[in-house]
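sorry to bug you again but im stuck and you know this stuff better than me. what follows is a protein written twice so to speak, once as letters and once as structure tokens for the fold. id like you to explain what the token line says about the fold, in plain words if possible. anything you notice is useful, everything is just below.
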Amino acid sequence: MPPERRMNHLSTETILDLLEDRLGDTRRRAAEEHLGLPCARCREQLREMGVLLGRLGAGDLEAVPESLTRAALDVFPGRTAAPKRGPLEVLRWALTFDSNAQPLAANVRRAVGEARRLRFEKEDARLELEIEPESAEQCVLRGRIDVPSPELHRVIAEVRGESFETWAEAGGHFVLEGVPRDELKVRVLGPERRFETPPFET
């Protein structure tokens, strides 16, 4: 029998509580340990529910019928409905470092080659970007977001009316390949906060 079938998967309620930071330390550790196992089912459910909560926070969904709301609440007896919240405020990151304007030391330049490095900051969140040319028309964006639970955050690069997106890894790292070299901005969408950079040239 495959290992995944022998696992006691995380319940939908546990995943919701994890995403909304309602688990105590012991239950959170147990949930995070389970997500560290080769359990594609629970990781995918965590990702999908993170996306759904993000869309709910942005007001991207149509109104839910009252009958469906009542049926959903009946699944979790003893819970009261969470207060409704409006769309999440989008926080604008400020550019605090640009290797084009503040040249790197010679040994660092040798290590990163032609890559341009940028740092954006806002409150307690940070975005580090490395822009490496692939060709005259395209580049690779490598980066790291420094926010709580970075793996629940989606990274989107918007350029020429196109969007290139990926999910950050547990350490906050991400890579976007084949991005057109032009003016772009980066958005980071999380379950609690959303950020975007000012437009910049690649």
Q: What stands out?
A: Residues 1-6, 107-112 have pLDDT under 50 and may be disordered.
